[in-house]
């Protein structure tokens, strides 16, 4: 379900609508699930056989055709090629539209003229300067990683399969720089046989595996220039940003590192993520890591104009514990690494019993090249569990305490969700 708040002329309209995916339509008609959720597992061989047989019967009888899509479109949103997409990494993007009165309409599943196969990441990266969008897909069969991009008009370019990733890894996010794309191979892997015959989970932690970072030119035609760098103990699900430094011989990446990866899927309340800055010297192959903040932070965002460029400010959600978010911090990642200091420069706690969603940065003047990086607002949904009230908060990104400048009382609950997006009125009119 998408929760859309449209702010215009001093007023606000809230609309909540399900994305009309193929899976949603079939399950609404039948009144029951047609496919199990792979992340909740099959619970061993007997349950696997029963649920698998039930799904097979529904496919054989024509009740459900998996070629029409199996995903939920419930993870994130992206705007590129003058289209707004709802994304889930197990399926193709679904185009959606915001109407003049604030309603949300599903336009349909998009395969980009047959050039996009099966699925796409829910975290594509849009280069503000070129208008290009970079993305990937991953899966349990070779090639386990496939990299691709869309031009500024939203036309998909050729796939770049990466066969040097030799085992299926849980690859949720990545980063781009002006010259490269940076992928992660972490200790969370995908094991279909374990799902069926073992614990029942498709994704499993492997403590003996050494995490790696893969760097490939972002305009690569093939994987011949892909380089992998071992980074022991570096397990990330989300990337914040990356950029080139030192005459392009160094790639810098900022991301929250999961300190206890074995808890990621089953005991989220024990997860602690520490934001780190990683430097990869492409000449020597040396990799260095520096902590940026010790607090439990994730769901971090930047000014979208700085994607792939050296940025200074990061706005991250405080896990208390995850997935409950008790506030937002502002980080200054330009602070000296030699000082070993905590880079938090502003904090806003929502209050007792109040929890929010992922923050998002909205620039005051997105098209002003002279505007300062943090000249804008941090926005998020917040729910008060004591009173049952939900609000949409607008905070001053430059203020030392992320001061609230506006709050919209909502008529109903906006549940704690995953990722969001801010789209300007100008872009809405392009849909």
Automatic annotation (TrEMBL):
The protein's required cofactors: Fe(2+)
Cofactor binding remark: Binds 1 Fe(2+) ion per subunit.
Cellular component GO terms held in the UniProt record: chloroplast stroma
Keywords annotated in UniProt: Dioxygenase, Iron, Metal-binding, Oxidoreductase
Binding site for Fe cation: 123, 172, 238, 419
MF terms (GO), sorted A to Z: carotenoid dioxygenase activity; metal ion binding
Presence of keyword Cytoplasm: no
Annotated GO biological process: carotene catabolic process
One Pfam family named in its UniProt record: RPE65
Origin superkingdom: Eukaryota
Family: Belongs to the carotenoid oxygenase family.
The protein's name: Carotenoid cleavage dioxygenase 4
